[in-house]
Amino acid sequence: MQPADFYSREVVERVYLPECEELLKRTTGATRVIPFDYVVRNNNGPGGDAEGGYLYFPHNDHTLLSAPRRVRRRRGRCR
Q1: How far apart are CA 63 and CA 4, in angstroms?
Q2: What end-to-end distance do the CA atoms of the chain give, in Å?
Q3: 11-24: per-residue pLDDT in tens?
Q4: CB 5 within 8 A of CB 11
């Protein structure tokens, strides 16, 4: 993918998220991965710093209780 592709929800969902799913399966041994609620953070991209600014590491905004609940709510929209 090209850097500009990360601003296209369609390209991210068609190309990048499936690649991330496979990477997580291979590295963790997971049998199922459900990506949801991603944010593109880039001060220079569309939206400027409204996009949240750069992060240099993966992180999780959910707790052990909230994450499963959130996945169940979003399941209808997941592949």
Answers
A1: 32
A2: 21
A3: 989 999 999 999 99
A4: yes
